[in-house]
């Protein structure tokens, strides 16, 4: 594999004058974390990055790499762009890592995956400052789609091809998932077996690492709560989370696709395949985020309230880019996707073509905390939940620490766990670095508020189809609209008698209202937009993964 180089903002040999304002800002954050220079040298994740504790206690200081785990190219039957176009565009928007996740089908399994691998190797050589993963968008038996992401290595493409042929619901006809259908239980069992098979390949060392994330979970309403719990519990070290916000965020730009368009292309109604326990409103996005994530006290919180980490991400799902002028090339006589495994190269028309998606990192970003730069470091950061996400380049940086008031360690960060006594006083430290440059829409983003969501942890759900977390609500909100640069909020918390978690959320403040479960739960949460009138740049949010607090049986004396 081509030798990797540090991204420009992290490379000490690149002069600050060669960086844009966001690159300078990110370098300053790296230096503040004590990682600028040789400390951030290329390599696998350190023990601290893998969840260990550095000397002095608390979690390690982190740098955040920005990326996208859901991207399609000419190796997907319904996409358009080449690897080179996508990688170059992502680099221009500050992307550090990306995953090509081509749709499974006959052409891909028989031909495309191997051809794609050779092109990925060339793309890595052409883009040595980017981490470029090969992945797959898996059709989950009886359910929706998933990202399957593997570490580079001698078996990366072989693993994906074997998996596709052995477990893909579309290829094998395992799509039936209607409640009560004779094939549904069998197909759901195949999905669990598939995830366990991936975990076994990792355990035996056939591949260095592999991860799975559920894509656009509420788009069709066919990912039931019990299925999501079954996938997670099958191999939590592999099945680590879901898209908190789907791609296709440009779908409802006014005048672009029509009067019925919704951000994320969430324009569906319940079908016979849908799980009947979801309300009709679950099929919409809220501030561009999936209902499962955007609803305080909803499905994501129901999963977290079991005390088990389940991460959220955001990505482009790039197929066809808004306002892009390229169209699909023409087939040669006798050629099809099934007998070539690849679309013809696109052709520039000079006029805008239909599309719903943004380029990787243009609008949606997933930030992953690491202590070293490299492929496995990104995957371990995802696995340990050191993740926050934003739309519209709302923030340059977010650092979260939770610690006991009597403790002088650095405390724990996103995805971590803190053990405390009953009644112990804690402080949540939230360090925000505001946007340093205009975003790709020409807007200088301004964060308006930071919200703290707190939920009680009660262990495994008695009802595996429950999507409610009735003890979760927004417990603190800070208005920050006039603040610029880097600042730290100090938010006091007290441990009660039960374990709990906290997570963060915030927005530009332009569109909000009472949350889906009411103002007493979420007084100013994300809301839906009118069909066809969903300018994504005018309604941007950030979300963070949780920090868990395990409360012991004894009451602490501060």
State mean pLDDT (0 to 100 scale): 94
Indicate the radius of gyration in whole angstroms: 22 Å
The strand count comes to 22
Overall 3D form: globular
User: Approximately how much beta-strand content do the residues carry?
Assistant: 15-25%
Provide a count of the helices.
11
Structural class: alpha+beta
Give start-end ranges of low-pLDDT stretches: 44-52
User: What share of residues is helical?
Assistant: 10-25%
- Sheet with most strands: 15 strands, mixed
Give the N-to-C terminal Cα separation. Answer: 54 Å
Any overview of this molecule?
The protein has about 550 residues and is α+β, with helices and mostly antiparallel strands. It contains eleven helices and 22 strands. It has helices at about 20-30, 85-90, 105-125, 155-165, 170, 185-205, 225-235, 290-295, 300-305, 335-340, 375-385, and strands at about 65-70, 95-105, 130-140, 145-150, 210-215, 240-245, 285, 290, 310-315, 325, 345-350, 365-370, 385-390, 395-405, 415-420, 425-435, 450-455, 475-480, 485-495, 500-505, 540-545, 545-555. Strand 2 (about 95-105), helix 3 and strand 3 form a beta-alpha-beta unit. The longest helix is centred in the first third of the chain and has 21 residues, at about 105-125. It is globular. It starts with 20 loop residues before the first helix and ends with a strand. Residues about 45-50 have low confidence and may be disordered.
């Amino acid at each position: 594999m081509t030798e990797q180089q540090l991204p420009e903002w992290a490379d000490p040999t690149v002069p600050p004058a060669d960086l844009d304002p966001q690159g300078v800002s990110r370098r300053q954050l790296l230096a503040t974390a004590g990682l600028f220079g040789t400390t951030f040298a290329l390599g696998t994740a350190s023990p601290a990055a893998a969840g260990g504790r550095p000397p002095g206690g608390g979690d390690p200081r982190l740098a955040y790499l920005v990326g996208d785990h859901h991207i399609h190219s000419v190796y997907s039957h319904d996409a358009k762009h080449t690897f080179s176009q996508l990688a170059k565009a992502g680099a221009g928007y500050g992307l550090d890592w990306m995953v090509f996740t081509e749709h499974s089908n006959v052409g891909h399994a028989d031909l495309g995956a191997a051809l794609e691998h050779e092109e990925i190797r060339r793309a890595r050589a052409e883009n040595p400052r980017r981490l470029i993963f090969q992945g797959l968008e898996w059709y989950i038996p009886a359910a929706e789609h998933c990202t399957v992401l593997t570490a580079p290595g001698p078996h990366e493409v072989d693993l994906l091809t074997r998996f596709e042929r052995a477990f893909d619901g579309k290829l094998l006809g395992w799509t039936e998932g209607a409640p009560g259908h004779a094939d549904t239980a069998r197909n759901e069992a195949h999905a669990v077996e598939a995830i366990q098979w991936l975990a076994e390949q990792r355990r035996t060392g056939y591949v260095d690492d592999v991860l799975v994330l559920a894509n656009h979970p509420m788009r069709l309403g066919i990912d039931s709560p019990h299925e999501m719990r079954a996938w997670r519990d099958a191999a939590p070290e592999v099945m680590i989370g879901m898209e908190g916000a789907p791609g296709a965020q440009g779908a409802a730009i006014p005048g672009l696709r029509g009067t019925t368009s919704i951000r994320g292309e969430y324009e569906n109604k319940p079908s016979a395949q849908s799980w009947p326990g979801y309300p009709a409103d679950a099929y919409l996005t809220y501030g561009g985020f999936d209902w499962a994530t955007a609803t305080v006290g909803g499905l994501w919180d129901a999963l977290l309230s079991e005390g088990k980490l389940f991460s959220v991400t955001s990505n482009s799902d790039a197929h066809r880019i808004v306002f892009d002028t390229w169209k699909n090339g023409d087939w040669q006589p006798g050629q099809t996707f099934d007998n070539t495994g690849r679309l013809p190269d696109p052709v520039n028309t000079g006029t805008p073509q239909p599309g719903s998606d943004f380029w990787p990192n243009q609008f949606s970003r997933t930030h992953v905390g690491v202590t070293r730069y490299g492929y496995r470091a990104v995957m371990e950061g995802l696995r340990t939940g050191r993740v926050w996400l934003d739309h519209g380049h709302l923030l340059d940086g977010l650092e979260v620490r939770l610690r006991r008031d009597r403790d002088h360690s650095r405390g724990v960060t996103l995805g971590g766990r803190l053990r405390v006594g009953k009644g112990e006083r804690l402080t949540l430290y939230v360090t925000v670095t505001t946007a340093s440059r205009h975003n790709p829409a020409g807007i200088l983003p301004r964060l308006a508020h930071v919200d703290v969501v707190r939920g009680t942890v009660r262990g495994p759900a008695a009802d595996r189809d429950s999507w409610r977390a009735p003890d979760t609500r927004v417990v603190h909100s800070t208005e920050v609209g006039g603040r610029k640069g880097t600042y730290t909020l100090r938010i006091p918390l007290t441990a009660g008698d039960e374990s709990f978690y906290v997570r963060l959320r915030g927005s530009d403040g332009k569109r909000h209202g009472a949350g889906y479960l009411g103002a007493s739960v979420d007084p100013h949460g994300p809301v839906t937009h009118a069909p066809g009138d969903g300018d994504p740049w005018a309604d941007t949010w950030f979300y963070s993964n949780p920090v868990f607090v395990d409360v012991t049986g004894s009451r602490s004396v501060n």
